[in-house]
Write a structure and sequence with these properties.
heterotrimer; A mainly alpha (469); B mainly alpha (127); C mainly alpha (100); A: 469 residues; two-stranded antiparallel sheet; 19 helices; 1% strand; B: mainly alpha; 65% helix; 0% strand
Chain lengths: 469, 127, 100
């Protein structure tokens, strides 16, 4: 049967959706939370393993009447999203227990969101893209407002919801106009269009606006800092990595597969947006005192670096973005995980720079891990962040975008200042009152160290991933 | 092209004129003897009390939300049902999966007690 | 028959009204209603294209758009109720703990 055959190439999404349903039933029947966590982690792990084996197998093609692709870019996107989900699920348990919101529904929502992300990251038809994107977004609106008693949490959810739904309107209008211009929602048919009229260009423009909203590029970034600061910390890590990865992979599929013929028209637009995003994101991050909010602005800046690779509009540019997303997922989930620990370790709700004073000496391994993540985010060799930046900038220079690469390097240098400032507080400032942080949950600690190890590994040997493309 | 809509315009005019004529006629010809009971707002036969613009319990909103979700499933069921005989087994099983997912959603909402807004245990479950 | 441009024009006008509504209104519920207006304006475009082409794909997308709008309504109203319980207001100018 066709359906089963197609499904056999689309296991990761099927696995995560079944896992999500199981978690929902566990919530209904009040199952022991340890089991729920174990099942959710196992689900994400299986999805990751299947995605990795799909990636290595190297086959590719279209599924479900051309709705989604498997193999290639889609398989890599699926892999990174599943990996991000896996780490989020492992890390969320102890954090959610500490903030008193450890519900089975959280796992159900994360797994449903992951299903949406996988569909989004492998969509070759605008219908599948829309459905995947919204499955993801609606789950994330709820997750952002998880701590509804706290005013900042529910405020973040409201802002995310209103602006997310607003941008959905633009995206959908773009899809509708492209359908009107090409008589099809399939990216391959759209790519074959030669008659590009006003409808086509209006559609492309609105689609770009919708996407730029979702990847939080300047000037459509206003929601990001508020949402990232207000959401529970491990969920913020999830939104900043898995959600952003899937949106960028979908962006690559739309631009590279559907609109490659119009690269000369959209590349200049993306160039300006990338410039603005890098400059504004980094400049505002410089003046932040709340570390979580600083990482939110830094995530805007990183979206700018990824846009540099997209602007290049070549295969090497897209591959650079894919590697960048992978590296970014590792280091950013790690950084947010350490923040989550500092926030909840002794009930002080630490999040500002001053409150971080001297913490590096408390749990030395975590301090070192955070430093590795921050160095990597700053783009210093030999960490994964450097390898990623190198690839996107190299692809941009190949295509003659010298200004873009230059601004990228300069803003990275400026960014190093605010990343290193965190470390200065961690190690060279003494706290007002002596603090002693309790030991970290063992699994939690080892997961962070694993992430730090991977950040170094793929910084030293990026070819391990790059050869997969 | 607007000629096609001419019959509809005629119908609309007739409807409006007829309604007006009937209202005016009943106003002129009908007997009017108002008293206190007749002027009371109608509330299913009970004596009305309180303001009409009372706040409703927020539980009703949950029922409304669940109504929207389960109402919209028909959007997908209907085209499937219309073409059912022409479709293959794959379409049948795909729809079974869809309905199973909805069923699990119903089980969840029942177990959470969102549909019985009377009992205090339900309020406890939701918290 | 009314020709395609009329439908597209109406859809564009409705979409613009929705956009302006989101941008200038300060009540979260009204902003949400404006967003729904935007989505439904797009649905009108899709159905018009679909009927014009004699192709069902556009209408299929409308089904999904409707479902998404319903899911967003469910989640959005829940969020708005939660924030109303917290702040006793849905005026977004009064919901401003997070800035800069």
């Amino acid at each position: 049967m066709d359906l089963l055959h197609d499904l056999s190439y689309f296991w990761p999404a099927a696995i995560t959706s079944i896992g999500g349903l199981a978690a929902m039933m566990a919530a209904a029947f009040k199952t022991d939370m340890r089991w729920v966590n174990a099942v959710a982690v196992f689900t994400a792990l299986s999805a990751t393993v299947v995605a990795a084996s799909d990636l290595v197998a190297g086959h590719s093609g279209l599924l479900f009447s051309g709705m989604v692709a498997h193999g290639g870019t889609a398989a890599f996107g699926t892999f990174v999203v599943s990996l991000g989900t896996l780490f989020t699920l492992v890390l969320s348990r102890s954090y959610l227990e500490k903030i008193g919101h450890h519900y089975a529904e959280v796992y159900a929502l994360i797994l449903f969101a992951t299903t949406g992300m996988i569909v989004l990251a492998s969509a070759t038809d605008l219908v599948a893209l829309f459905v995947g994107l919204e499955t993801m977004s609606v789950c994330l609106y709820v997750l952002a407002g998880l701590v509804r008693e706290r005013k900042t949490g529910i405020e973040a959810a409201l802002k995310y919801f209103l602006l997310g739904a607003f941008s959905t309107g633009f995206l959908l209008y773009g899809i509708a106009l492209l359908y009107g211009a090409t008589m099809s929602t399939s990216l391959d048919v759209i790519a074959a269009t030669t008659d590009k009229g006003g409808l086509y260009w209006a559609g492309v423009g609105l689609l770009l606006v919708g996407f730029l909203f979702k990847v939080s590029a300047v000037p459509f970034h206003m929601w990001t800092p508020d949402v990232y600061q207000g959401a529970p910390t491990t969920i913020t890590g999830y939104m900043a990595t898995a959600a952003k990865t899937s949106a960028f992979v979908a962006f690559i599929l739309v631009l590279g597969r559907g609109l490659q013929g119009s690269v000369e028209q959209w590349a200049p637009v993306l160039e300006i947006v990338a410039l603005l995003t890098m400059i504004v994101g980094n400049l505002i991050a410089l003046v932040q005192h709340d570390v979580k909010r600083m990482l939110a602005y830094s995530s805007i800046a990183h979206a700018g670096y990824a846009l540099v690779g997209l602007t290049a509009g070549t295969l090497s540019g897209y591959d650079g973005v894919l590697f960048y997303l992978f590296a970014y997922t590792l280091m950013n989930i790690g950084a947010f995980a350490v923040l989550a620990y500092y926030e909840t370790a002794d009930g002080q709700e630490r999040s500002t720079l001053e409150q971080f004073a001297g913490l590096g000496w408390q749990q030395p391994a975590l301090g070192v891990a955070l430093s590795i993540f921050l160095f990597s985010l700053a783009g210093m060799p030999p960490f994964a962040g450097f390898a990623g930046k190198y690839q996107v900038f190299a692809a941009a220079i190949e295509q003659g975008y010298i200004t873009l690469a230059l601004v990228g390097v300069l803003t990275s240098a400026a960014a190093a200042f605010y990343y290193i400032r965190v470390m200065v507080y961690l190690y060279f400032k003494s706290p007002e009152q002596p603090v002693s942080l309790p030991a970290v949950d063992r699994l939690y600690g080892w997961t962070i160290l694993l992430l730090a190890g991977l950040t170094i590994l793929f910084g030293v040997m990026p070819s391990l991933i790059v050869n997969l493309f | 092209m607007f000629e096609l809509y001419f019959p509809i315009a005629v119908l609309a005019v007739v409807a409006v004129v007829l309604a007006l004529v009937l209202m005016v006629l009943s106003g002129i010809l009908g007997p009017k003897r108002p008293d206190k009971v007749k002027l009371m707002p109608y509330e299913s036969g009970m004596d009305p009390y309180g303001q009409a613009r009372d706040r409703y319990s927020v539980s009703f909103y949950l029922v409304a939300v669940e109504f929207i979700v389960f109402d919209l499933e028909v959007v997908f069921l209907y085209p499937w049902a219309v073409r059912f005989l022409d479709l293959d087994a794959g379409a049948f099983w795909a729809m079974m999966v869809f309905i199973t997912v909805l069923l699990l959603g119903l089980v969840y909402t029942l177990k959470k007690g969102t549909l019985d807004w009377d009992s205090s245990t339900a309020a406890h479950n939701r918290a | 028959m009314i020709s395609l441009p009329w439908f597209l024009g109406l859809s564009a006008v409705l979409f613009t009204i929705g956009t302006i509504g989101v941008l200038i209104r300060r009540n979260a519920v009204v902003m949400f209603m404006s967003v729904e207006l935007m989505l439904n304006a797009v649905n009108l475009s899709l159905v018009a294209f679909s009927a014009h082409f004699g192709d069902v794909h556009g209408q299929m997308l409308v089904f999904f758009a409707l479902c998404v709008a319903a899911a967003e309504a469910a989640v959005g109203l829940a969020i708005i109720i939660a924030i109303f319980r917290n702040n006793l207001s849905v005026d977004i100018t009064k919901i401003n703990l997070l800035r800069w």
